[in-house]
Specification:
Radius of gyration: 20 Å
Strand content: under 5%
Low-confidence stretches: none
Mean pLDDT: 83
CATH class: Mainly Alpha
Largest sheet: none
Structural class: mainly alpha
Number of strands: 0
Oligomer: single chain
């Protein structure tokens, strides 16, 4: 935080991410309010995230050849326009399932470029490379801070106003990051040479041939395929299990966000990469336990405890793996490594959200959570058996 440029970037992202979380909660509530369909919740989550699986890796190769600062400003502007359009459609009463799915798909395509751009630019605003893991941890703390603060605010706004207001506020929030990027100078980042295809193949070869990178990305995919799908199930828990309203949804989401915020806050002071690799394995274990606790049902307080455990575990897993990957990646490959990270994270999240919605419609929400917990436990056993080799990959 002693670097002026990073402070500007940090502040701009803080407001932008808060707005994004407010919109996300409002959107899933809108879907379930007008349709009552658990399956459509899964479809909406899927189309919003699957572009990062399909487009993300190629977007990373393209990003590594571009002026990242200029393109981030452009993508943020388009995201603001998408949110403003969503607000207008909602306010006019023209919104329906087909338009929601279409707007979610557009959001997913834009995020396929936005997320790698934002992460890859962090290194431009950090003076000392040794500070990069700390900067990445602070950035993850912002994401999860927004998850902690945004949903309760969204629940309050939904109770007092409408979904359209939440979407409009998100549209305004993108201006904060645009202004921050315009004011920050930053150091120039190395660009990759050659065609997009060649640059993509170079990044894919690095990811596949490096054992530690391959294992971490696989673990990342499993965590987000299972534990992260809680977001799709929250409206069902709030409305059908606990017979609540939008404020109940905000409370449940806020519990997960609180756990995530605490989790990423603990990472801000971690400097040992080998120790961090052990922390990731522990976080996977906490996710599995949190799914089991949330699936018990009965009390809102018990569900909040389970969701806090899931939020903590998912945040530490995602942020910890991101820190390990970016800290060990060559500068010229960082954009592509980030894009593969994002593809695994959000692509698995998309598939997991779709499967969670379909399973919840078939088995019920509690049994869905337990099935996901069992799958994650198998992943935990795999990682635990390889913990020493993973630690050695990042230092003595």
């Amino acid at each position: 935080m002693r670097a002026r440029d990073f402070r500007l970037y940090f502040s701009g992202q803080a407001i932008s991410l808060l707005g994004s979380w407010i919109q996300q909660v409002a959107l899933v509530w809108l879907v379930y309010r007008i349709t009552g369909s658990a399956a459509l919740l899964g479809v909406t989550t899927f189309v919003a995230l699957v572009p990062q699986l399909l487009v993300g890796p190629l977007a990373g190769a393209w990003i590594d050849r571009q002026d990242k600062r200029r393109w981030l400003i452009g993508v943020q502007s388009l995201l603001g326009l998408q949110a403003l359009t969503l607000a207008g459609l909602s306010a006019a009463g023209w919104i329906g399932p087909a338009l929601i799915v279409a707007m979610s798909a557009l959001l997913g395509v834009l995020n396929s470029f936005d997320a790698p751009l934002r992460h890859a630019l962090i290194s431009a605003y950090v003076r000392d490379k040794d500070d990069l893991p700390n900067a990445l941890a602070l950035n993850s703390m912002l994401v999860n801070g927004g998850r902690f603060i945004g949903p309760p605010i969204a629940g309050l706004l939904l109770g007092l106003t409408s979904e359209a207001t939440c979407f409009a506020l998100n549209a305004l929030s993108f201006l904060s990051l645009i202004v921050a990027v315009l004011r920050a100078e930053g150091r120039p980042l190395q660009r990759a040479g050659g065609s997009v295809g060649r640059v993509f193949k170079e990044g894919a070869r690095y990811v596949w041939s490096t054992w530690s990178v391959r294992v971490l990305i696989a673990a990342l995919a499993v965590v987000n395929l299972t534990a992260s799908s809680y977001a799709t199930l929250l409206p069902i828990l709030a409305k059908d299990v606990f017979l609540g309203d939008a404020r109940t949804l905000g409370l449940l989401w806020g519990a997960a966000g609180g756990g995530a915020f605490v989790g990423t806050s603990t990472l801000a002071g971690v400097k040992s990469l080998p120790r961090l690799s052990f922390g990731v394995i522990g976080a996977v274990a906490l996710c599995a336990a949190g799914l089991a606790v949330t699936g018990v049902g009965g009390l809102v307080a018990l569900a909040c405890l389970g969701l806090a455990m899931i939020g903590f575990g998912v945040a530490v897993s995602n942020a910890g793996i991101n820190m390990l990957l970016q800290s060990s990646a060559p500068d010229a490959l960082r954009g592509r490594v980030v894009s593969f990270f994002m593809a695994a994270r959000f692509g698995a999240d998309a598939i997991g959200g779709l499967l969670a919605g379909l399973l919840a419609a078939w088995l019920g929400v509690r049994h869905t959570l337990w099935v996901e917990g069992v799958v994650l436990a198998v992943c935990l056993v795999f990682l635990f058996k390889r913990r020493k080799r993973l630690r050695e990959a990042f230092g003595p």
